[in-house]
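Memo to structure team: turn this sequence into structure tokens by end of day. - J.P.
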Amino acid sequence: MTDEEKKNTSKAVELGFIFFVVALSIHSLYAYLKHSAFSSSFYILISGLVVFYVSAFVKRKQ
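Reply from structure team:
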């Protein structure tokens, strides 16, 4: 993979991650306001954020 392809792939992953965070956040907020309880979207969102930050932390330590 060339440097240009790596850069483009990294940007695509970043934009995809942002999209899913925003979509899950909106759905979680809607579900909480509508049903006064957290939905599975909230737990998926939190799990994804935990995985992201833990992997970023581990990557920085290497």
